Amino acid sequence: MLIDLDREDLIALVKGTRPDYSVMDDELISFCGEYSGGFSEEWRWNYSFCVGITEEELYNMYLTCKNSWNEK
After folding, report:
1. Distance between CA atoms of residues 60 and 14, nearest Å
2. Residue 12, in any domain of the structure
3. β-strand partners of 35
4. Beta bridge partners of 36
5. In whole angstroms, what is the distance from residue 36 CA to residue 45 CA?
6. Which residue range(s) make up the domain with 41?
7. How many C-beta neighbours within 10 Å does residue 72 have?
């Protein structure tokens, strides 16, 4: 299957995922969001995380988040 994604599509893909704890220290991922531990234990993407990030970096960030759950 071949899909043509634009920048907005890639941003939506990234925002639709969250990283496993094992990759939260990744430089780009930690720049773009934050983990709140304790009772809530949740990941939040920064609202302006896509500023200055290339489409290739967005796609790689999506793959890193998605694949981090398969490594267990």
Report:
1. 9
2. yes
3. 43
4. 42
5. 11
6. 7-68
7. 6
Tokens of 59: 């796609």
- pLDDT tens sequence across 2-28: 999 999 999 999 999 999 999 999 999
CA distance 28 to 53: 9
In single-letter form, the type of residue at position 68 comes to S
Q: How many structural domains compose the chain? A: 1
Query: The tokens of 3 are what?
Result: 């899909």
Domain for residue 19, yes or no? yes
Predicted confidence (pLDDT) per residue in 29-46, tens digit: 998 999 998 888 899 999
52 Rama class: left (phi>0) / alpha (psi -120 to 50) / beta = left
Is 1 inside a domain boundary?
A: no
Residue with tokens 């609202």: 47
Task: Tell me whether residue 2 is in a domain.
Answer: no
